Amino acid sequence: MKKNNLKPKKFFGQNFLSDSQLIEELIEEMNIKDEDRLLEIGPGKGAMTNLLLEKCESLTAIEIDKNLIRFLEKVFGDKKNFNLIEKDILQYDPKELGRVNKLIGNIPYNISTPIIEWIIDNKSSFDEVFLMLQKEFGERCFAQPNTKSYGRLSIFVQCFFDVTAIREVDKSFFNPPPKVQSIFLKFTPKVLDITSNSVLMKNLSILTREAFSKRRKLISNSLKSFFSEQDLVELGIETKSRPENLSVETYIKLAKSI
Ligand code: SAH
Predict the structure, then answer these.
(1) Which CATH number is 248's domain given?
(2) Is 32 helix (H, G, I), strand (E, B) or coil?
(3) Between the chain's N and C termini, which has fewer beta carbons within 10 Å?
């Protein structure tokens, strides 16, 4: 194989992890057990895959880049617990695999939003999700009310998952280094969620779009086509609230009462 086949490709968001100490620390945080069945998004050259394979019952890796597929087949092809699929993760249905308990990915940052949507759509397939994300994007996922990062992404992700930050990761740990800093997060699906109710989810989407498109306006103003001031008072919402002041639970309450 020609060496330049594996030159990192920007359009596939290829920033390979290059520090073995860091990789070990990240894998330590995932607490991989013998019986774990893993799904890895974008294994790249297998920086994490290699160590994960030593610890788990099985690992299925979904990779879009043909050249990397060939490389991975050569390197890991004879490992019995390795399963490699050439596919766009967004087109992949994890139910094909049966039970998988952990989803892992140092994902391409240029498709972070569709990957989060894909994870939400497939959340019943996983017990735990570990993702490397661009720092600001990651911070929006776990942001709490009354902070700058809090917005629609926080509300949607937190309807479905408890999110914790494991650690920030400096760009120097990647090859090539991305332009941005990174953060490694753990997502644990919530046991009780409201998300089987599609009307409610649609209402939540409409309300949060209205509210956060006018971030600095009062809720009583930006949501006035849905709620009068009286309605808001009856729902226990301070009429001087701005969108970032309301909790995820309050948005759900609003969505239920449209
Ligand atoms: N996990 C590796 C590589 C991270 S770079 C490491 O940490 O070193 C992101 C990887 O995702 C690349 O291998 C890239 O080819 C792959 N990728 C990009 N878009 C993808 C998609 N839509 N579906 C699956 N893999 C994708």
Answers:
(1) 1.10.8.100
(2) coil
(3) N
Query: Which residue's structure tokens are 């309807």?
Result: 159
**Ligand 1 nearest atom to the CA of residue 18, by list position:** 8
The position carrying tokens 């920033």 is 15
Nearest ligand 1 atom, CA 12: 18
Structural domain span for residue 145: 3-189
- The Å distance, Cα 49 to ligand 1 centre, comes to 12
State whether the beta carbon of 162 lies less than 6 angstroms from ligand 1. no
Radius of gyration of the chain (CA): 21
90 lines ligand 1 (CB under 6 A): yes
Is there a single domain that holds both residue 202 and residue 170?
no
Cα gap 178→156, rounded to integer Å: 27
User: Which distant-in-sequence residues (6+ apart) come within 8 Å of 99 by Cβ?
Assistant: 37
Residues 167 and 226 in one domain: no
Atom of ligand 1 nearest to the CA of 107: 9
Where is the domain boundary, 164, 189, 214? 189
Please, which pLDDT band fits residue 195 given cuts at 50, 70 and 90?
Answer: low
Give the confidence band of 98 by pLDDT, cuts at 50, 70, 90: confident
